[in-house]
Amino acid sequence: MARLALCLLLVLAAPARSQTPESPKAGDDWVKALLVGESLLIGASWLTSSAPNEFGIVAAVLIPYAVRGNEPYHWTMLISAEALAFYNIQLDEDEKSRREVFRDNLIGWHLAIGATAAVAYFTGALGEDVEVRPAGGDGLSLNYSVSFR
Question: Can you give the pTM of this predicted structure?
C-alpha cells in the first residue's frame, strides 16, 4: 500500500503545464530543468520497478487528468503514457527483473516525451526564440527558448 501511495504522489506531483511565467531564462536554467525532469523520470521508473502492476493501474486512471488539451501533441502524450501504463498492467513480474522493468519504463518515458516534442515541433505548436548577442571579450551568447502554446 505504501508503494501505491508513493506512485500516486509522484504522478500528482508532476504538473501538467509549466506554472512559471514566460520570461528570459538565465544561462543554466535549462540544466536545472533537465535535472528535475530526469529526476522525475528516474523516480517514476524506480517506483514502477517495485510494483509495476499497481503503478500501471494508478497511471492509467490519472494520466487522462494530467494531460489536458486538444492539440495533436496532447493526444500523443496521452496515448504514449497510457500505452506505458498498460504495458505495466500486463507485465508478469516473474518474467522480468526489477532492473529490466526500470530500464523499460525509463526508455518508455523518454520515447513518450520525444514523440510528443516531435509532434509539437512538426505541427507548429512550439514557440521558438533564438537570440545571439555579444558576451564579454570575443565571445557570443546564444539563447534559445522553446515554449508550448
Answer: 0.66
